[in-house]
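Next up, a chain.

===
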Amino acid sequence: MKTINKDDLRYIYKVLDFRVISDYLLEVFKRSTPSYRNQKIVLLNLLNYLNKNLEKITMIDIKRYFDEIIDKRTNKKNHKPISINSKEAYRSYLSSFFDYVIGRFLEDNIEYRNPVPNKRIYKFTRYESDIKKQTEFYDEVFTEL
Protein backbone atom coordinates (compact mmCIF):
# COMPACT_ATOMS: atom_id res chain seq x y z
CA MET A 1 0.00 0.00 0.00
CA LYS A 2 1.36 3.40 -1.02
CA THR A 3 0.96 6.21 1.46
CA ILE A 4 3.09 8.47 3.62
CA ASN A 5 4.63 8.02 7.01
CA LYS A 6 5.34 10.55 9.70
CA ASP A 7 8.98 10.86 8.59
CA ASP A 8 7.81 12.42 5.30
CA LEU A 9 6.51 15.44 7.21
CA ARG A 10 8.68 17.85 9.18
CA TYR A 11 5.75 19.16 11.22
CA ILE A 12 3.95 17.03 13.81
CA TYR A 13 0.40 16.95 12.44
CA LYS A 14 -2.69 16.08 14.41
CA VAL A 15 -3.91 12.51 14.00
CA LEU A 16 -6.93 13.68 11.98
CA ASP A 17 -4.72 15.70 9.62
CA PHE A 18 -2.31 12.82 9.10
CA ARG A 19 -5.20 10.44 8.42
CA VAL A 20 -6.76 12.87 5.91
CA ILE A 21 -3.44 13.32 4.08
CA SER A 22 -2.81 9.55 3.97
CA ASP A 23 -6.36 8.70 2.86
CA TYR A 24 -6.29 11.32 0.11
CA LEU A 25 -3.01 10.01 -1.30
CA LEU A 26 -4.35 6.46 -1.14
CA GLU A 27 -7.41 7.54 -3.18
CA VAL A 28 -5.13 9.17 -5.75
CA PHE A 29 -2.93 6.06 -5.88
CA LYS A 30 -5.98 3.90 -6.69
CA ARG A 31 -6.66 6.09 -9.74
CA SER A 32 -3.16 6.54 -11.16
CA THR A 33 0.39 5.80 -10.01
CA PRO A 34 2.03 8.71 -11.92
CA SER A 35 -0.60 11.11 -10.59
CA TYR A 36 0.01 9.76 -7.09
CA ARG A 37 3.75 10.47 -7.37
CA ASN A 38 3.22 14.01 -8.66
CA GLN A 39 0.54 14.90 -6.14
CA LYS A 40 2.50 13.44 -3.23
CA ILE A 41 5.55 15.54 -4.13
CA VAL A 42 3.54 18.76 -4.45
CA LEU A 43 1.47 18.12 -1.33
CA LEU A 44 4.41 17.20 0.92
CA ASN A 45 6.36 20.17 -0.43
CA LEU A 46 3.52 22.50 0.58
CA LEU A 47 2.95 20.92 3.99
CA ASN A 48 6.64 20.92 4.85
CA TYR A 49 6.91 24.54 3.72
CA LEU A 50 3.95 25.73 5.82
CA ASN A 51 4.37 23.60 8.97
CA LYS A 52 0.75 24.18 10.03
CA ASN A 53 -2.24 22.02 10.86
CA LEU A 54 -4.63 21.73 7.92
CA GLU A 55 -7.43 23.77 9.49
CA LYS A 56 -4.99 26.64 10.14
CA ILE A 57 -3.85 26.93 6.49
CA THR A 58 -5.20 30.10 4.88
CA MET A 59 -5.31 31.55 1.38
CA ILE A 60 -2.51 33.93 2.39
CA ASP A 61 -0.32 30.91 3.25
CA ILE A 62 -1.02 29.30 -0.11
CA LYS A 63 -0.42 32.59 -1.96
CA ARG A 64 2.92 32.97 -0.16
CA TYR A 65 3.81 29.39 -1.16
CA PHE A 66 2.90 30.16 -4.78
CA ASP A 67 4.96 33.39 -4.71
CA GLU A 68 8.04 32.00 -3.01
CA ILE A 69 8.15 28.40 -4.23
CA ILE A 70 5.99 27.59 -7.26
CA ASP A 71 6.24 30.79 -9.29
CA LYS A 72 10.02 30.99 -8.85
CA ARG A 73 10.65 27.29 -9.38
CA THR A 74 12.96 26.23 -12.20
CA ASN A 75 13.34 23.10 -14.26
CA LYS A 76 16.17 21.05 -12.72
CA LYS A 77 17.57 20.00 -16.12
CA ASN A 78 17.95 23.38 -17.78
CA HIS A 79 17.27 25.79 -14.88
CA LYS A 80 14.60 27.58 -16.90
CA PRO A 81 11.33 28.58 -15.23
CA ILE A 82 8.78 25.78 -15.20
CA SER A 83 5.90 26.21 -17.62
CA ILE A 84 2.63 27.90 -16.80
CA ASN A 85 0.91 24.56 -17.45
CA SER A 86 2.97 22.87 -14.72
CA LYS A 87 2.18 25.68 -12.29
CA GLU A 88 -1.53 25.31 -13.04
CA ALA A 89 -1.24 21.55 -12.52
CA TYR A 90 0.23 22.21 -9.05
CA ARG A 91 -2.67 24.53 -8.29
CA SER A 92 -5.10 21.85 -9.44
CA TYR A 93 -3.45 19.18 -7.25
CA LEU A 94 -3.64 21.39 -4.18
CA SER A 95 -7.20 22.48 -4.91
CA SER A 96 -8.30 18.83 -5.24
CA PHE A 97 -6.60 17.96 -1.98
CA PHE A 98 -8.27 20.79 -0.07
CA ASP A 99 -11.66 19.91 -1.60
CA TYR A 100 -11.11 16.44 -0.13
CA VAL A 101 -10.15 18.02 3.22
CA ILE A 102 -13.41 19.99 3.22
CA GLY A 103 -15.41 16.77 2.87
CA ARG A 104 -13.49 14.98 5.60
CA PHE A 105 -13.67 17.92 8.00
CA LEU A 106 -17.40 18.26 7.35
CA GLU A 107 -17.85 14.68 8.59
CA ASP A 108 -16.37 15.87 11.92
CA ASN A 109 -18.43 19.10 11.90
CA ILE A 110 -15.38 21.27 11.22
CA GLU A 111 -16.11 24.18 8.91
CA TYR A 112 -13.38 24.77 6.37
CA ARG A 113 -12.88 26.57 3.05
CA ASN A 114 -10.54 25.71 0.22
CA PRO A 115 -7.53 28.03 0.70
CA VAL A 116 -6.18 27.59 -2.85
CA PRO A 117 -6.70 30.84 -4.79
CA ASN A 118 -8.26 30.37 -8.21
CA LYS A 119 -6.94 31.83 -11.49
CA ARG A 120 -8.87 35.07 -11.08
CA ILE A 121 -7.46 35.74 -7.63
CA TYR A 122 -3.86 34.64 -8.23
CA LYS A 123 -2.12 34.66 -11.61
CA PHE A 124 1.24 32.95 -12.07
CA THR A 125 4.04 34.76 -13.86
CA ARG A 126 4.11 33.98 -17.57
CA TYR A 127 7.50 33.72 -19.19
CA GLU A 128 8.51 34.21 -22.80
CA SER A 129 8.82 30.45 -23.22
CA ASP A 130 5.13 30.04 -22.27
CA ILE A 131 4.07 32.63 -24.82
CA LYS A 132 6.32 31.14 -27.50
CA LYS A 133 4.81 27.67 -26.98
CA GLN A 134 1.30 29.05 -27.34
CA THR A 135 2.22 30.96 -30.49
CA GLU A 136 3.79 27.86 -32.06
CA PHE A 137 0.65 25.85 -31.20
CA TYR A 138 -1.66 28.39 -32.82
CA ASP A 139 0.58 28.67 -35.89
CA GLU A 140 0.29 24.91 -36.38
CA VAL A 141 -3.47 24.96 -35.95
CA PHE A 142 -3.93 27.75 -38.48
CA THR A 143 -1.64 26.14 -41.07
CA GLU A 144 -3.64 22.91 -40.92
CA LEU A 145 -6.84 24.66 -42.01
Remarks:
- Confidence is low (pLDDT under 50) at residues 141-145.
- The helical segments are 15-31, 33-50, 59-70, 84-107, 128-144.
